[in-house]
Every structure is written in structure tokens, then in C-alpha cells.
Design a protein that fits this description.
Order of helices and strands of chain B: EHEHEHEHEH
CATH superfamily of chain B: Response regulator
Helix content of chain A: 40-55%
Structural class of chain A: alpha/beta
Strand content of chain B: 15-25%
Strand order of the largest sheet of chain A: 2-1-3-4-5
Number of strands of chain B: 5
CATH architecture of chain B: 3-Layer(aba) Sandwich
Number of helices of chain A: 21
Distance between the termini of chain B: 14 Å
Largest interface: A-B, 31 and 35 residues
CATH architecture of the largest domain in chain A: 2-Layer Sandwich
Helix content of chain B: 40-55%
Oligomer: heterodimer
Amino acid sequence: MMPSAEGNTYMSTSEQPLQKKIARLRVSFINQLPARLEQIQELVQLIANQSSHDQASISELYRAFHNLHGTGKSFGLIDLATIAEKAEGFVWKMLDAPDAPRAINWAVPLTDMIQQLREQIQSYADGKSLHHQVGAESFVQEYSHNNAFNNTAPLIYICDDEPEQVDYLVHQLGCLGYQVKSFTQTTEFRKAVMKQRPDAVIMDVYFPHGRTGTDELASIKEATGRELPAIVLSGSSAFESRLSAVRAGSAAYFTKPASPMSLAAVLDELVEYKEEEPYRILIVDDEPEIAEYHSLILEDAGMIARKIYDPSMVFETLKDFSPDLMLIDMYMPVCNGDELAALVRQFPEYVGLPIVFLSTETNAQKQFNAMRAGVEGFITKPVVADELVASVTLRAERMRTLRSLMVRDSLTGLYNHTTTTEMLISSLANAKRQQESLVMVMIDLDGFKSVNDTYGHMAGDQVIVALSRMFKHRLRSTDVIGRYGGEEFALLLKDIPDNLAEELVNEMRQDFSKIIFCSGDKQFTCTFSAGISMYPDHDSSEGLRMAADTALYLAKEQGRNQVVVSRKKYE
Amino acid sequence: MDILVVDDDQLAGEMTTAVLEDCGYRVFQAENAIEGMQVLNQQPGIELIISDLNMPLINGIEFYQELCEQGYELPFILLTGDDPEALLAEEPRLSACVMKDFTIQDSLPAAINAVMSVRPL
């Protein structure tokens, strides 16, 4: 091969960060592995078929293993390298004693090692492909739910050598809506991670055999190039154990016995992190090239940008794009920036929308005038990419937080009463348009007042949070989950058959009743009742709500802890 | 600084190259000793050679010995999956011998710094 380093090509390739480049090379190497193994297989076949001893083929075979060993090691594929090293040593002996191989049955151990290599290579390939289809059905779960409906439950692996601890955690976390799989040995755990990467891991530190949990995490990080979101469990609170956990990239550290509720709180943080939606930015500029340039900068930073060149389009776009922030050019024909900002502010729903001006204006008085029209900030042209991204991110983030405070319940993060009601109206309108069904479920905790009275409000909150968590994990991201009142919840399930909705709510009811809550040294359980109604049986939002309420009332009347479906006959 | 990397395994060569380019070196790659010789002739600016040990026909040590015989005095770092100490014992004139593994991102630049700092200007 000729020198790869020539003038500009050299410059452009070297600008890629090293880690990215190595990761790319590593992927190519893994992709090549089947072909390399094929070549080894052919060589072995060739050697086996020859009557006389073929030294050249054997040394070629030696080199093939040697390269697999060396390059595998360079890329951190330790298991592969170890097997290849063994094979390399074996072939070396064949080379050393030219006549001996004929005497012993050399092909058997070699075939065995090739088989091991094949399995190892397969596991890398699976790890890669499965990563794109998390939740594939081929995987056996210790605690799995009705998958016909649910495909969003986070997958959690627990690795701990104490079976009683594990059983309890698997069960409780399962009831909270996670898919949980447990392992008592780090080796099985490692295999499973390579096969299907979990969303998060709960890992014990000490195992009687083999390496510690934190070492295993560190080694998996090294081998896969990515950190596993992990919580470390330990019997000890010693500084060294905690430090090893931090070094292995663990997000949290719990001393045993860890309460499932507190674990769930951290797990949700770990899992939800990836679901952060990109910021949506609306750019208004009469010059398409400039709008394009700004939108490229923002999109490069991971945001979604929408451009409009005509200010009169702004209301339409605000409605269907619902941006987190508006970026407006100061000087435009038809209507200039501060006029447009003032127009937008006339609508109550956009009062809080951050607006940032782009202009060449450095005159403080003019900037001040714009501020009075409700503009959050100024960015001076020509734009510095980093500055644009930083000031947009800062303001969009604040907008998100504010908006979420307005529409969400602070304890559970679910939609509040007002928002849920709005969602009901818009979901119903949407269902009618799309000619889909819409299921409404009203849920009320049974005997919640006595929980508060007996165990205190902290315990009561724990129950509310647990129920919200289960809903979030079991329902699809398109479903609406609202906290309707103190102990009352409303669910809106889109486009699902009524029998499946009933089955699902019943399954959640049973799971929830199995969750054990703790208050001091006292333990208790809690149940809920549910009423279900649906469109097209009822075709107004008020009708849906009333019917679900009536069904819920009936469920309570009939003895609680049950689900009642509203049929037309109840009306 | 210009460096020649010789490795018959293309990906391994790319990996070494990535590490070196990240340190700001300019890298020329060759797939075997003969090609390596050609590159050396075309690129008089090369100041260091990094070669894999195990290659067909001419291995890394033989390549180094050949270069010595031809009067090249460039520092030479050998990359290997085997025990570096044993190889250094076998050919003590080698500037350094670096183990091929996942730490190569750190160990190779360190070896280069060590080798280049002891060279007379």
C-alpha cells in the first residue's frame, strides 16, 4: 500500500478525534472477522487434505492466528485475542515439529478452537445488531410483561451472587414495570450484555469467584468502548469500594439492602437521560442562505431547526412546530424583528416563548427598545457558532423547565389536571380524524386516606410515585398519563383494541398490588380500582370522562381492586 | 515528524497510524518490508520506523537487521503481541519494543518520546 499521508488527505483524516477513529477501525475489524475466520478455515482444510507436510501453509495459518491475536488485543477484544493466542501457540508447535503433527490428531483441537472463535465473533456481531432493535422478542426475560402492547419498558440486568436479594429485587422492580433479568455470576452477565445491551445495570461488588463487579463493568466498558449505565451495590460503604465504583463509571452506589424504590428513582434517571428530546428552534429570516447557515449550526449541535422566510407565516408555524425558542432577524421587509416579537407576545400561549434577535445592531439604545418588546437576547452578526449554540441552548433549556412546571405535576412528573383535560380533547379530535379508537382509563387508589393516616404522607407519596413509575414504564410513549387529582390518575391509550386495554390495566393492577412499601419497619401493600371507557362508544370528551368515572365508581362499589369496563348498557 | 509504519495487517496499521496522527506525526504506511524500503527511499524525511514483528517473508527483526546492514541508522520500534523483553534480548540494538494491546494509545507515544529524546541531534 502506498503512503496514506499525502497533503490534504492527511490533514482531513487527522482532524477526526482519535477515539472516534479507533471506534471506527474497531467496527471495521469486527466486520472483517467472519472473512478472516473463513480464510483460517480454508487453510486448515488445505493442510488436512495434503498428504505431504506443507510448511508454508502452516506458517500462513500461524500468522493468521497471530494477527487475530495481536489486532484483537489492540482493539480490546480480549476474549477473542485469548482464544487466538491459544490457537497461535498450538500452530507454533506444529511448525516446530514438522513430522509430529501427522502423528497426533491435530485437527480436532484446532477445529475446537475455531469453533470457539466463531462463537466469540458471533457474539460481537449479535451485540452490534441487537443494539439497534432493543426489546427483540428472542430474549428470555425473567420478568416480562405483555409484549403485544408494551415495548418501552427499560431493560435492567441485575448481577448479584445472593439469590434471596436478587429474587426480591427482580420481583419488585418487575412490578414497577421494568423488564428485569438477573445473573449470579459475572461471566453469564458479560455474555448477556454482549448479546443484548441493557438500559441499565445493578451490579454487586463482591463475588466469591472471579473478578469483582466493578472490574467487570470496567472491562466491559473497555471491550465495548461504551459505558454501561450502572448502579453499584455493596455490603460495605468503604472508601475503596466507592472509589472503584466511581472509576468503573457507576452512576450511584447503594449499600445493601437497597430499597427497590430508591433504586427505581436512580434507574429512571439513568434510563430517561437518553430520551431527552432535541430543542426545537424556529428561525425567521428573509434571507434563505443566512437562515440555512444558522439552522446548520444548530442542527450540528443536535437541535431541530425550522426556517421561515416570510414573517406572515409565523403563526401557522408556531402552531404546528411548537418551538422551544424563536430566532428572529432584526431587519426584515414587511415587518421588522421587534414588531414581529410584539405580535407573537399578543398571544397568551406564546408569552413565555424565548425570542432571540440576530442583528448587526450594536447600538445599546436600539437593543434596549427591542428588549422592551419582550426579546430575551441579542446575538450580533456575524454569528460565532459556539456562541449561537450556547445562548440558544441556555434559553431553550429554561423554556423547557418552565413549560414542564406549568404542565406537569411536581411529585410524579405526570401531566397535571389541566393539561390532561386538554390532552383528552386533542387526542379525541385526533382519533376522530384518524378513525382510530381512544381508550380512557380513570384510576383511583384504594383506601389511600388510610395509608396516609396510618403510615404518614411520606409513605403516601411513595405509593403515588410507584404507581406513576409503573405507568411510565408499561405504557407507550404516545399514551398520555395524567395525575388527575390527589390519588386519581387518568390514562389515554391511543388506537388499541378494547380487550387489550382491559387486559393491560388488569395486569398492571395485579403487579401493583404485589409491590411492598416500607414505612419505618412496617410494610404494606396498596391496590387500585379502574374504570375504562372508549371512543367510539362515547364520542365527546365529557362523555368519555363521565363513563370512565361511572365505571370506576362501580369498581369501588363491587369491592375495589378491580377493573370495570363501561359498556353502553351502563348508561 | 515523519514516521514509517510497517504492518501486514491493514487494520492494525491503521490503528497505529491513528494513534500517531493524533500525536501530530505524519505517517507513511507500508504492508511489508520491501514496500517499507521503497517508501524510505522516496521519503527521505522519515525519522522513525515502527514495524510489526510478525510478517510474511521478512519479519520485523529481519527487516531491522537488513536496514542496519544497508547503513540506515534510523530508530526502530518493534510492535509485538509477544513478550517484548525476550525480543529485546534477541536484538538489543532495537530502540524499543512495544506490546500490542489496548494500551497502545498511551504506550506507543511514550516509547516514541523516550526513543527520540535520547537521540543525538
